[in-house]
Amino acid sequence: MPLAVIDLLKGADLLIYPLALCSLVLVYILCERVWALRRGAVIPDDLADAIVAGQPVTGGEHSVLARIVRFAQAHPGDPEGVRAFARLEVSRMERGLPYLEVIYAGAPLIGLTGTVWALIRVFSSIGGPTGLPDPAKFTSGVSLALSATVIGLVIALPALIGGGILQRLVDKYAAQLDVLLARLLASKPTPGAL
Predict the structure, then answer these.
(1) Residue ranges of the alpha helices (H) in 37-146?
(2) pTM for this one?
């Protein structure tokens, strides 16, 4: 099995380097976003419960919701500014996700390019007095040529699945933040209000 993996990597030839870069960026983004989008870092329960209950908000100091609350407290009477800041925080939660889409689209294309390149080399080696390829070398060359596409697809699948899951998580948090923000702004009297 390890020899098959080594042969697979050798079959990708020079395009293994951009594929490896895509793979490293993919792993980094997935790990960083999973850590950054954990519930306690976005909407801590104690802070959300305090907002819902209309109590003084404390706790969750370094969370997304805490930053929004601090901004709201620093800018009383500016609900549109607070909403804009909340949209900015949601945008920050999406950081890195567009790169997963690029990896999802690009890795298979890089792999396909490697496959076409290797097939061109395989077919250009056909020659000799009969003009027929050596069947063993030919099938081995075609098999190795397809390895770049396999690697590209293996990279693209986690990018597609991980990016989709993380985007749904950001959307869920955005909806929850919107509800909490409406509650927070409703509980604060605005200047000039009766």
Answers:
(1) 39-42, 45-53, 64-74, 79-93, 97-124, 135-145
(2) 0.81
| Sequential pLDDT tens for the chain (194 residues) | 565 667 666 766 778 889 999 999 999 999 999 999 999 999 999 999 989 888 887 766 789 999 999 999 899 889 999 999 999 999 999 999 999 999 999 999 998 988 888 888 777 777 666 666 667 677 777 777 788 888 999 999 999 999 999 999 999 999 999 999 999 888 754 443 32
Nearest CA among 110, 96, 118, 94 for reference residue 156: 110
DSSP 139-154: HHHHHHHTHHHHHHHH
How far, CA to CA in Å, does 120 sit from each of 9, 129, 142, 145? 18, 20, 10, 9
